[in-house]
Structure formats: structure tokens, C-alpha cells
Amino acid sequence: MSFADLGLSDELLQVVEAAGYTEPTPIQAQAVPSVLMMRDLIGIAQTGTGKTAAFVLPMIDILGHGRRRALMPRSLILEPTRELAAQVAENFEKYGKNHDLKMALLIGGVQMGDQVKALSEGVDVLIATPGRLMDLFERGKILLTGCELLVIDEADRMLDMGFIPDIESICSKLPTQRQTLLFSATMPPPIEKLAAKFLSNPKKIEVARAATTNVNIAQHKIAVPSRKKRDVLRHLLKTDNVSTAIIFCNRKTTVRDLNKSLQRHGFASSEIHGDMDQPARLAELQRFKDGVVNILVASDVAARGLDVKGVSHVFNFDTPWHPDDYVHRIGRTGRGGASGRAFTLYSPEDAEAIENVEKLTKSKIPVFTIDGSDEPEMGEEAPARRGRSASPKAEERKPAAKRGTTRKDEAPRGDDVPRKADTPRQREEAPRRPSRHDEPRQAERRGDRRRDRHADPEPADGGWNGPVPQFLHISALS
Ligand code: ADP
Ligand code: MG
């Protein structure tokens, strides 16, 4: 199967070739012809499988015909985070350069003036996060009645972030005669419901379960007490041929502390988490992409779906609470056919989480053994095995559940969970494993439409006055 078989225009095929893509990924091969035939579509494929181009490419050809109208975008792409929205915009810029298309990017943390101006002049593509779009709609700056193509991207992430009511409301503002595409890594029941309500006779394409991890990724787990995690991590960073790495932590405070510690030890690292504002996150991501730093310490919300090429290693400094996140995290490596390595450190506190990961992926993650000679100082509790000859039985043993080492300032909350004042009582409580859908439910109870402020804070307009990164500019694509 080649791109030429998918029905795309010659102009587009040239750009795809220039991008260095030789053949479509499975989701692209199946989705592109259906999108070009104007069918509704549900595309389910794990992170890193090329879903963006699966809708961006055919959209460019579809939008190549027709005319722009003031205030009425012709198509709308909804993304859960600003970073993902910016990435889709970059894709439009790259693949749309042979077409006369205009786009606007509507995301928090960037001043709205230019974006509103572009909209008032007419755009072919509007890429937006739901919260910001609702804001603008309520201010009467935009009409969605001319929007004949809707993409709901990363639908499961939208669910996690409590965006489903916003999406329902947005859908109801679009013409009923439209084409709707929904992409997701998983299809939890609320997303099935959303699809049933807003898609008509969709073609369903499922190329790989989210629970299926990529065969190009060599996975390992290492049992280690919490207080030794940093030693083991540094050891691996020095000895495992790490060229670029993303290190995931469950809590924002851990992200910050770990990054500081790595920098103190001379590593070129930076951090990205949900408490940082948009420009700061993009700046850090850019430094990582540019190779200024080769280690990025990240939280799940900040990193989900980010397209960072050629990451040699993923480290789970903590085992993720949600097993789906394991698949998403390690999906940062082993992309586009390259091989990658993923290490998961698990302490007694992570024991249940790692069991859940192995249940989801239906496989045991192989135990990694650290060789004697250059082994870090592990202390007497060191559960990482000494020497490769240890019996498999001993290697599989669980770490002794001994100490509750959750630090006071690391009250168990992921980026998804809104900050609440820590009462002394809460601090003493054992780590609570947040349920995947806790936050949306809490938010619904509060009747708070702008849940994203908690989940992924979008600073108010004008909160940032620095330069806008090039790819965030409203741009003519031709
Ligand atoms: P997803 O949305 O499924 O998580 P992306 O659309 O972000 O995945 O794509 C993941 C990576 O794969 C990107 O770096 C993208 O440039 C690359 N990619 C996409 N399509 C192809 C292709 N046909 N051949 C090679 N690489 C591709
Ligand atoms: Mg994507």
C-alpha cells in the first residue's frame, strides 16, 4: 500500500514524499479513503500511529475546494490540550503548503486578538481546545453554522479532562449535515455514547488496541524502594546508551524535585507539567526538540500525545496509576519503526499499579537486573537483583511492602486532580488511587464549565505577553 493508492491529490502526494513518509501507517491507509468519501469515521489506534495525518491529509484535499466566509470556519478540529492543538497546526502548515488554506488556532495562553481577526476574515480550518472555543462562541465572535467537517481528536483524553459536556454543546452548534471524525486510543463507554449521538453511520477502524504495546519497545521493570529511585535512575541514564529520554512521574511535585536533582547531578534535563503556563511548556518542549536538553521530566497530562521524535528511552519514575497511561507513556519511544527502551521503576507503593499494567497489557514486564560492578549504592533493601544469575523466582518476588514513604508535599494527586488545600488529615491518608473519571464527575457536580482551568490551566487572555512561537501564529498556508 502506498500513499498514491489512497486517492489524495498530486500536490499532497508531493508534500508527503517531501516529509519523508514512504508508506501510510495502517490507520492512515484505512482512514484516508473513507474521509475522502465524506464518511463519518471512528478511528481507534494507539498513540504514535499517525492519526494526525490520517485526518489532516484528506482534510486538506477536501478543503482545497470551496470558499472561506467571514466568522464561519469551514472545519473544526478539537484537541484536548494546547500542545496537541499546536502540533496539529504544525501538521497543517507542513502538508498544506501547496494549497490555499487559512487556519486559526484557538488555544489558551496565547493572546486572542490575532486569532479573532483571522476568524473574522474567514478560515478554512479552526483548531481549538473546547474551553477556549466555548468562550469565544459565548462572546459572539464565531459562528459554527458553516462548519461542515468536525474532528474530535484524542477523544479519550477529552473524557479524562472533563470536556465531554463542552463537546456535546459544540456539536449541537454545528450543522447536522456535516462530516464527523472521531479519533481515540481507547473507546470507553462515554466515548461510545458520544459517537452514537453525534456521528451518523460511521465507519469504524480499529488498528490496534491501546492495551497492545509496541513490539519495537524493549520493556523492563525494576523493583526499587522509593528513596533509591533517583540512584537507580541516574545509573540507568549513565549506562544504558541513553540519547534522549522522557521520565514520567505521577505527581507535579515529583517532576519538579526530580528535575532539580538531575540538574544538580549534571544532567541536561528540563521539566514539563500541568502547573506551567503554555509559553513555558512550549519553550521547554522546544529546548528538548532542539537538543539543548536531552532529558525531559514530565507528568502525564503535560506529555500526552506530544510528538517528540526519536526518544531512545522512556522511564517511569513512578508506575502510572492508570494502566492506560503506561501504554501512552512508553509509546513516546519506539516510534516510526525505530526501537526504544522503556524502564519502569516500582516501589512497594507502585505494586498494585504495576499489577494493573500487566493485567491490561496481558503480559509480564521482564525484570531488569543491574550488573554488580557499576551498580549504584542500593542499600540493604535493594530489591534490584545483583548479578544476572539470580533465579527467576527470586527476580519475580514482590518488593516488601514496608514503608509508606509518600512525602507530605506529594499528597497524591495527578495533574488531572484539582488542587485542594491539604489538611493534616489528608496528608496522613494512604495514597488514593484516583479513578480515571473522578475529576470530570467532580467538575460536573460543581457545574463548572471551565474544568480545564483545573486540569490543564489555561491562563486568561493577556496572561502572557511574550513572543508567540512561530508555529502558533495564525498563518496563511500558501
Ligand atoms: P498519534 O496521533 O496517533 O499519536 P501522530 O499523528 O502524532 O500519532 O504521529 C506520530 C509520529 O509518526 C509523528 O512523528 C509523525 O510524523 C509520524 N508519522 C505519521 N505518519 C507517518 C508515516 N506514514 N510514515 C512515517 N512516520 C509517520
Ligand atoms: Mg494524536
Folded structure, characterized:
With 478 residues, the protein is an alpha/beta fold. It has three domains: 3-206, P-loop containing nucleotide triphosphate hydrolases (Rossmann fold), CATH 3.40.50.300; 217-374, P-loop containing nucleotide triphosphate hydrolases (Rossmann fold, 3-Layer(aba) Sandwich), CATH 3.40.50.300; 405-477, no CATH class. The chain contains 19 helices and 14 strands. The protein has helices at residues 10-18, 26-36, 51-63, 82-95, 113-121, 130-138, 155-160, 164-173, 189-198, 229-239, 252-264, 278-289, 300-303, 323-330, 351-361, 392-396, 424-428, 438-446, 452-455, and strands spanning 41-44, 75-78, 102-106, 125-128, 149-152, 179-184, 203-206, 217-223, 245-248, 269-272, 295-298, 313-316, 340-346, 475-476. Strands 7-1-6-5-2-4-3-14 form an eight-stranded mixed beta sheet, with helices on both faces. The chain is globular. Residues 372-478 have low confidence and may be disordered. It binds adenosine-5'-diphosphate and magnesium ion.
- Oligomerization status of the protein chains: single chain
Identify the overall geometry.
globular
Bound molecules: adenosine-5'-diphosphate, magnesium ion
> Percentage of helical residues?
25-40%
Class inferred from helices and paired strands: alpha/beta
Rg, alpha carbons = 23 Å
CATH architectural category of the largest domain: 3-Layer(aba) Sandwich
Give me the CATH superfamily of the largest domain.
Answer: P-loop containing nucleotide triphosphate hydrolases
- Please list the strands of the largest sheet in the order they lie side by side: 7-1-6-5-2-4-3-14
